[in-house]
Amino acid sequence: MRFIALLFAACLLMVTFGTAQAADTPAVAGKAAVHKPAAKPAARTARAVTSLKPTLVAPATDILHEHFAVTVSGNVTNPEGLPLPGATIWVTSKRDVLAVTNADGEFTLTLPTNAPIVLSCGYAGFEDQLIPLRQPRRQNLVSVNLVPVAAASRR
C-alpha cells in the first residue's frame, strides 16, 4: 500500500515539475517561445454498467447460539401401541431418508446442527406425522404414534 502511495506521489511530482520546467525553459536562440494550449482530454466513452448480484454469505460463526450435533432417538407405534418396523424418518423439506425403524420400531439418527428442523415419519397405510424440533438438545427422545389412513380420513 505504501509503494502505491509513493508511486502516485512520484508521478504527481513528475507531472507538476515537468510542465513547470517546460514553461520556464528559455527560448531557443532565434526562436520565440511558443506556448501551446493543452490538448483537450479525450471524450470519455460510456462504459456499460454491470449490476452486481447480491450474494448470500453464511456467517463463519454464530455468536448468538452454540452449534452442536444432535441425536434424535425414538420409537414408532400404531394406535394399539405395537411397533412399526420399517417406518421411515426424513427431513420434510428434502425427502432424504435419515433413518428406518428396526424390528422393535426404534430409530436413532444424528443431525449435524441444532438448528430448528421438521422431520416427518411415515409408514405404508398410515398418515405421515410431522416431528417439529424447535430447539433441539444434544439428546432428543420422541415417540411417534401413527394413525391409519382410513381412520385419519374419518376425522
Automatic annotation (TrEMBL):
SUPFAM superfamilies: Carboxypeptidase regulatory domain-like. Pfam families: CarboxypepD_reg. Gene3D superfamilies: Carboxypeptidase-like, regulatory domain (2.60.40.1120). This is Uncharacterized protein. It comes from Hymenobacter busanensis. The lineage of its organism: Bacteria, Pseudomonadati, Bacteroidota, Cytophagia, Cytophagales.
